Amino acid sequence: MNKEFGKDITLYGSTKDISSAEGVLKTVKLTGNEATDRITIQSLIDRHRLKASILYRGNSVWSKQKVLKDFKKLLKTNNTEEGLTDYLYKFFHLECGTIAHFSKNGWALTYPDNRAIRRLFIRNEYGKRVLEHQPAWASDRKIIITEIEKLLGIYGKQYKFVKQMRDVVRQEPYELMEEISFKIS
Predict the structure, then answer these.
(1) Residues 6 or more apart from 164 whose CB is under 8 A from it?
(2) What are the beta bridge partners of residue 3?
(3) DSSP one-letter code for 69
């Protein structure tokens, strides 16, 4: 079931879940600025443990708590096939610049462990760092992805090194060999 809530928000879920989300959303004044409103809604989702899916201008607003909880569990297993939840799979393939790979199992086989997921966040399937892949209005996702990058060790000062390595990998093989002092005959 779905229900419109104002001009920018659509709620999906059971009648009970939608009613609960409506009640919580009525308690706040949204600004109309998508980046600001998405953070407000994300906070409400987490604070009130809302189960309805909330879309703002057609795009999901994600629970930071749920994504990070699921991601930490996945890191502990170091086995994507075993630790990947449906919610985290949706977040990855809808928001992180990776295709669905036919199914959750197909995605898990493509990114089987923590090392593969780390590589994905450094350079997604569109050739971008996942954080750089996000549009300006996707503030809820940027907050989550920043936390994921911290857990993966690719945020902040560490990222400068990661960016340098990514740029080196993009070079042609001969340019790379010259840069590291190999003579090309």
Answers:
(1) none
(2) 11
(3) H
> Using CA atoms, how far apart are residues 159 and 149, in angstroms rounded to an integer?
9
Answering whether pTM is above 0.85, one says no
3-state helix, strand, coil in the chain (%, to 5): 60, 10, 35
| Tokens found for residue 75 | 């890191």
Find the length of the chain.
185
Q: Residue 103 phi/psi, 5° resolution?
A: -170, 175
Provide the token pair at 30.
Answer: 């949204």
Q: What angle do CA 111, 116, 120 make, to 5 degrees?
A: 90
> Which tokens sit at 55?
């879309």
CA diameter of the chain: 72
Q: What are phi and psi of 12, to 5 degrees?
A: -125, 140
Q: Which of 183, 162, 165 is nearest to 174 (CA)?
A: 183
Question: pLDDT tens across 48-98, in order?
Answer: 999 999 999 999 999 999 999 999 999 999 999 999 999 999 999 999 999
Sequence-ordered list of residues with C-beta below 8 angstroms from that of 66, at least 6 positions apart, any chain: 46, 87
What's the rounded Cα separation, in Å, for the pair 68 and 145? 9
